[in-house]
Amino acid sequence: MATPERFLLAAVMGWPIFQSRSPVLHNFWFAQHRLAGSYVPLAIPPERLEAALRALPALNFAGCNLTIPLKQAAMNIVDEVDVTAKKIGAISCVVVRKDGSLSGFNNDWYGFTHNILEFEPDWRADAGPAVVIGAGGGARAVLYGLLERGAREIRLCNRTAARAETLAGEFGAAVRAVAWEQRHDALDGATMLVNTTSQGMIGQPPLDLSLDRLPQTALVNDIVYIPKETPLLAAARKRGNRIVTGLGMLLHQGVPAWKAWFGIEPKVTAELRARIEATL
Ligand SMILES: NC(=O)c1ccc[n+]([C@@H]2O[C@H](COP(=O)([O-])OP(=O)(O)OC[C@H]3O[C@@H](n4cnc5c(N)ncnc54)[C@H](OP(=O)(O)O)[C@@H]3O)[C@@H](O)[C@H]2O)c1
């Protein structure tokens, strides 16, 4: 094993933390690059987040990832929030700078778009209307990613209408809020469908959405990745739609984090994917 100048350290902070697959992901990359380092899960309640983040420089951590609900709370703690994280309204990654100050980034949108591109290299977000179901933290990153790739029409549908309307207002004219009751019809003519709700996740009921109106040519993505293939993806695949599973969003968002923390660009490989899928 190579001897780096220092033991490389990064963490994921969450509350609760038990479901995070991030330690498996990052520790795989440490081993693959033959680096002395470790990525640890830290259960941090929101009221301790500031103290925990401020301790990172003294503990020699290069940075950390954050999970819900800490992603929003960190916005008011770090010394600088980059422009993309501001637009998305959440920090997924904190970088400890040389002077010990903290900067906040959001790499979830990058994970979303690069996961799609890994499976569908010719994917174009401007090919036609996209339907996004859900308006939580994940949806914010997905909307940013779609717009960054040139999407011109996004139909945003959420159980709580006010949340979809707020997001549509924030993200501009290309995003239009659609009433929850109209979610089935909203699929008419869509070229892409993305589920960002927690429905379909293990322990949750499947997303209540009829795919009858969805063109067979549409691409379907679910950002839920436990189980690997959600009931929505299984139904879409069965009727002939192309699908992209959600795990890759988690894997790909780790790439820019590593670049910022350690100056290394790790790869998302089939071996890495298999390693994490084995834990799902
Ligand atoms: N693959 C990845 O890297 C990645 C990244 C981020 C998130 N995720 C996954 O995405 C899912 C959502 O995460 P999040 O952070 O966006 O959560 P969140 O901010 O809590 O948002 C949850 C969303 O689910 C909707 N929802 C909850 N229960 C519902 C129900 N019974 N019927 C319809 N809609 C319902 C909520 O609608 P209301 O507004 O009406 O409550 C809201 O839109 C989670 O499963 C998470 O693991 C994956």
Write structural notes for this entry.
The chain is α/β, with parallel strands linked by helices and 280 residues long. Helices cover 34% and strands 18% of the residues. It contains ten helices and twelve strands. The chain has helices spanning 22-32, 49-55, 70-73, 83-88, 108-119, 137-148, 161-171, 231-238, 247-262, 270-277; strands at 8-14, 37-43, 63-66, 80-81, 93-96, 102-105, 130-133, 154-157, 175-178, 192-195, 219-222, 242-244. The strands form two sheets. The chain has a six-stranded mixed sheet with strand order 2-1-3-5-6-4, with helices on both faces. The chain has a six-stranded parallel sheet with strand order 9-8-7-10-11-12, sandwiched between helices. It is globular and about 55 Å long. NADP nicotinamide-adenine-dinucleotide phosphate binds next to α5, α6 and α9.
Topology:
Blueprint: E1 8-14, H1 22-32, E2 37-43, H2 49-55, E3 63-66, H3 70-73, E4 80-81, H4 83-88, E5 93-96, E6 102-105, H5 108-119, E7 130-133, H6 137-148, E8 154-157, H7 161-171, E9 175-178, E10 192-195, E11 219-222, H8 231-238, E12 242-244, H9 247-262, H10 270-277
Parallel strand pairs: 1-2, 1-3, 4-6, 7-8, 7-10, 8-9, 10-11, 11-12
Antiparallel strand pairs: 3-5, 5-6
Helix pairs in contact: 5-6, 5-9
The structure holds NADP nicotinamide-adenine-dinucleotide phosphate.
Features of this protein?
six-stranded mixed β-sheet, 280 residues, single chain, 12 strands, alpha/beta, binds NADP nicotinamide-adenine-dinucleotide phosphate, six-stranded parallel β-sheet, globular
